[in-house]
Each structure stands twice: as structure tokens, then as C-alpha cells.
Design a protein that fits this description.
Layout (H helix, E strand, L loop, with lengths): L1 E6 L8 H11 L3 E4 L1 E2 L2 E2 L5 H13 L3 E9 L23 H18 L3 E4 L18 H12 L2 E5 L9 H10 L4 E5 H6 L5 H7 L3 E6 L1 E4 L8 E4 L8 H11 L4 E4 L7 H15 L3 E2 L1
Parallel strand pairs: 1-2, 1-12, 1-13, 2-5, 5-6, 6-7, 7-8, 8-9, 9-12
Antiparallel strand pairs: 3-4, 10-11
Helix pairs in contact: 3-4
């Protein structure tokens, strides 16, 4: 059994070469692209995207996934609050959304990846919150993705409408063409980070995000502090072996969000995954 660890270069620097060099140093062979050169990947021009691809190819690195912001949006008259959309607008008019879907598929093609992350609409005011299961854009996007040989993968994101186990199972059951981009840290954050939940979600899981955090309720800087994977509150030593057993061959993307010494956090995270996941590195 092989295990594949994925590094996102923008966790380290907006110059993707810096993160790619760290990937080579750590023996990581796959990349996830979210932002580069100070912009979200969806708004980079094709020349910039080709440069990212060349940098990866020069280092014999494979771009495994596009961490797009699709569906991490709300209507123009809604209040999304503080949301990290990585340089992409959170308010997107419905008439503009299909163009962004098409653009994401083009970006994936230029980067050479067949996996594209999507979300499930931001949770805003009750009367303005949209739902994924009745969104006519989703069937369009799934059909277009299939035409392009791309898999759309839904991330369970706490600020969006589909984050907990039951809503995930509902949406994935309604749309067999939609895969799961499973963020185990997010699952733990909403109270569903259990072995049983992971075992239930494993058959639909096609990509995994790994981040860790500690509670920080009294310091005025938000409700959690991100730390290197394996050193926080998420019970990865229980969850990861179960997921690996139920779904061999998954890709595990490091999304540390650690701002202080990010290279150290990424190195510790990679070492932790090598330790806890069965199999040999790819």
C-alpha cells in the first residue's frame, strides 16, 4: 500500500517555487494549488497558471488538486461575515457563477489536475442562505466536469451549509457524480469527528485535508489556534488508520494554516502523516 502526501505551496509563500522546493526537500511528490502570486488561482491568467505548472514539472511534482472557492459564496445583499475565501469574492451574483465554474475547469486543465474542490454556499441570514441540493448550477457543473474528465469534490466547511455528517450523506446521496473532499479538522470542529463517521464517509471520500488546532477561547484571537498536524485536538491517530483501511490510495493534503514558522509546521505534519498512515511513501 502506498500513501500520498500533498503540499500546498501557498502555506509557505505566494511564490509557488518556495513551497515546491520544500515539497522536494520533504520527499512530497504531489501539490495542491489554491493561490499564487498574491491571487486566487481562478483569477490568475493562463500565463501565470502555465508558469505554476512549469515550476511543478521542473521539480517532477504532480499537481493533484485545485482547491477552488466555488460555492463559498452568497447573494450580493447577504452578510457573509468574516470568511477566508483566499482572494475570491464571497458575494457572487447568480448570473456570474456558471462562468466561474467554467473558469475553474479551465484552470484545472492548465494545471493538469482532475480534482476540483467545491463548497456548499455560505451560511448567512436565514432568508438569504442558499442550499446546494436545489441549486440548478450544480447539475450543470457536474455535467461540464464529467465532459472535461474532472471530479468535483465537496469540502465539509463549517461556515457553509453542508458540514456535518447527515447533510453530507444527504447531498452525496442526491448527486452520485459528486465526491467528498473530507476535511477531518472541520469534521471534528462541528462535533462529528468520530471513527464511525469517518467509516461511514470513507466510500465517498476521494481527497483528504489534514489540519490541526487547539482551543483558544479566552485570548481574543478566534476560537482556535492552528498547530502542526498531530499536535492538536483532532484525534488523527484514531481517524487516519480507519480511513486508510477503508479507503486505500487516498491523497492527504496538508493544510496547516500555521502562520508562525509554516515550514516547520509542514515538516512536522508530513512526518506525522508518514508515521500514522500505513504503507510506503509514493
Amino acid at each position: 500500500m502506498q500513501k500520498t502526501i500533498v503540499l500546498n505551496p501557498d502555506e509557505l509563500d505566494q511564490d509557488p517555487a518556495v513551497g515546491m522546493d520544500l515539497a522536494v526537500e520533504l520527499g512530497v511528490t504531489h501539490l495542491e494549488i489554491r493561490t499564487a502570486y498574491g491571487a486566487n488561482a481562478l483569477v490568475l491568467d493562463d500565463g501565470q497558471l502555465r508558469q505554476v505548472r512549469r515550476l511543478a514539472d521542473d521539480r517532477e511534482l504532480t499537481i493533484a488538486a485545485l482547491a477552488s472557492p466555488l460555492w463559498k459564496w452568497c447573494p450580493a445583499d447577504a452578510n457573509p461575515g468574516k470568511v477566508d475565501s483566499f482572494g475570491f469574492p464571497t458575494r457572487v451574483a447568480p448570473g456570474e457563477r456558471a462562468d466561474w465554474v467554467d473558469r475553474a475547469l479551465t484552470v484545472a486543465s492548465v494545471l493538469g489536475t482532475s480534482r476540483v474542490r467545491v463548497f456548499s454556499h455560505l451560511r448567512v441570514e436565514d432568508t438569504l442562505t442558499e442550499t446546494l441540493h436545489d441549486d440548478p448550477l450544480l447539475p450543470y457543473a457536474l455535467a461540464r466536469a464529467e465532459q472535461e474528465g474532472v471530479r468535483l469534490l465537496l469540502e465539509n466547511e463549517p461556515v457553509c451549509t453542508v458540514a456535518r455528517l447527515e447533510p453530507l450523506l444527504d447531498v452525496l446521496g442526491r448527486f452520485p457524480g459528486l465526491g467528498l473532499w473530507l476535511d477531518l479538522g472541520n469534521l471534528h470542529e462541528v462535533g462529528d469527528g468520530t471513527v464511525d463517521a469517518v467509516r461511514t464517509l470513507a466510500p465517498r471520500t476521494e481527497y483528504v485535508h489534514v489540519k490541526d488546532f487547539l482551543p483558544r477561547p479566552d485570548e481574543g484571537h478566534g476560537d482556535k489556534a492552528f498547530v502542526a498536524p498531530g499536535s492538536g485536538a483532532v484525534p488523527y491517530r484514531e481517524l487516519l488508520p480507519v480511513l486508510a483501511q477503508e479507503r486505500p490510495g487516498l491523497l492527504y493534503g496538508l493544510e496547516t494554516h500555521v502562520r508562525d514558522e509554516p515550514a516547520v509546521a509542514l515538516a512536522k505534519g508530513a512526518a506525522f502523516l508518514h508515521d500514522v498512515l500505513p504503507g510506503d511513501p509514493e
